Structures are given as structure tokens and as C-alpha cells.
């Protein structure tokens, strides 16, 4: 087997057989299965709908659901790597042909990839496709006192520790934010002056991360 663009890892043995099973599908069947797959790729949170569509496809085409799921898993191998590495439609086509998919079906899939590329790219910006998983999150929030001449202006520190799963390992990711704000004031209502905009930025940052509004004294609203 030639070199793949989508991954450098060894390809599971089942992939070759699954590609041969795909080659036996008619053009109409492959088109229907590809449509189901792209619905999932563009809306990956709809897992239940995806499985229901696979079950319907299996029943309609008299294909056992177990082997079909294996086929779809192999079919997802290239898109997953393509999203991670930003592959072109041509590279997607080449990888499928390297894995054993017929040229006709590889071209069809790559054309669908090109059509859906803008939607997939927008989704991939803020998400991680089946690669990184957030395992845990810890946070610390505090205020240090300032001088009376600056109206007791202090610094707000927001420290986040994210535990991210990568394959069989976990990685700690640390994020820290700091700004100046009047001590004891709520982030939602900062004191007037040059510190207002920074306070609001930290408040917005915190809301974006946790969808919770936190006051400067650590209490949650």
C-alpha cells in the first residue's frame, strides 16, 4: 500500500476488505451512503440520527448492520485525517484509491468533499473531530489588592487547567488571563475608567468558556 496523506499510522487490516465491500455497491447505493456520511460530518453531534440513518440504509439495501458499521468506520478514516490536516479534494481522492476504493467512487466522494469543504472548514475551526476530548477542567479565580491611590485597583487572575485526551494519553493545557479592575467590583458592572474595557473582556472570556457569569469574589450567578 502506498503512502497516505490523511494519516501516518498503520491502517487497520479490515480497511482493505471494507473498501472491496464498498466497490460492490451500486452507484445509487454508494451515493446514498455518502449522503448519510456527510450529514454526520457536517453535524457530528447528531449521533443518534446518524445511527438511525445507517440502520435504515442497511434495511433498505439488505445489508447486515454490523458489517455496515465497519465499512463506515473505514470510510471515515480519510475524512477524519483530511479535516485534521486540511487536505484537498484531490488528496482525498488519492487516499481512497490507495486504500483500494475504485476510481469512480473515489472521484465521487472527493467531489462531495469539495462541495462540503466550506461547511466542514467552518465547523473544524471551533471543534476537534474525534481526536481530542476534554476530560476535565479546573479553574482558579482571584483578585489581588492595589494601592489606595489607584482607588484600590487590583488584578483579576483567571487560571484554567484543561485535561485533554489525545489517543491513549492525556495532556494538560493551561490558560491564564489577567486584567485590572476595582477590587470587589463585579465583572458585570466594572468601575468607570480605563479599566472598564479590560474587565468586560475578561467577563466575556469567562462566559465564553463556561457559559457562567462569575463575580470578582468568586461567587457564581
Automatic annotation (TrEMBL):
Protein name stated in the entry = COMM domain containing 7
Q: Name one GO biological process term.
A: tumor necrosis factor-mediated signaling pathway
Lineage at the top is: Eukaryota, Metazoa, Chordata, Craniata, Vertebrata
Any one GO molecular function term:
NF-kappaB binding
Q: What are the COMM domain coordinates in residue numbering? A: 133-221
Q: Which InterPro entries does the record match to this protein?
A: COMM (IPR017920), COMMD4/6/7/8 (IPR047155), COMMD7 (IPR037358)
A Pfam family matched in the record = COMM_HN
Q: Which CDD domains match?
A: Commd7
Amino acid at each position: 500500500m502506498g503512502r497516505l496523506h490523511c494519516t501516518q499510522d498503520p491502517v487497520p487490516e479490515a480497511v482493505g476488505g471494507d473498501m472491496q465491500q464498498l466497490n460492490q455497491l451500486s452507484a445509487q447505493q454508494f451515493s446514498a451512503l455518502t449522503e448519510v456520511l456527510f450529514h454526520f460530518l457536517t453535524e457530528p453531534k447528531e449521533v443518534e440520527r446518524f445511527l438511525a440513518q445507517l440502520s435504515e440504509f442497511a434495511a433498505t439495501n439488505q445489508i447486515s448492520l454490523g458489517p455496515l458499521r465497519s465499512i463506515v468506520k473505514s470510510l471515515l478514516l480519510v475524512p477524519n485525517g483530511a479535516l485534521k490536516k486540511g487536505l484537498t479534494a484531490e488528496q482525498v481522492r488519492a487516499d481512497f484509491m490507495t486504500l483500494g476504493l475504485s476510481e469512480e467512487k473515489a472521484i465521487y466522494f472527493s467531489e462531495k468533499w469539495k462541495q462540503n469543504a466550506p461547511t466542514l472548514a467552518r465547523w473544524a475551526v471551533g471543534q476537534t473531530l474525534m481526536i481530542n476530548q476534554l476530560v476535565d477542567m479546573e479553574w482558579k479565580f482571584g483578585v489581588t489588592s492595589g494601592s489606595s491611590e489607584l482607588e484600590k485597583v487590583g488584578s483579576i487572575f483567571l487560571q484554567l487547567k484543561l485535561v485533554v485526551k489525545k489517543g491513549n494519553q492525556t495532556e494538560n493545557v493551561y490558560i491564564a488571563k489577567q486584567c485590572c479592575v476595582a477590587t470587589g467590583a463585579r465583572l458585570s458592572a466594572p468601575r468607570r475608567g480605563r479599566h472598564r474595557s479590560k474587565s468586560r473582556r475578561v467577563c466575556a472570556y469567562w462566559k465564553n468558556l463556561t457559559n457562567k457569569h462569575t463575580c470578582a469574589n468568586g461567587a457564581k450567578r
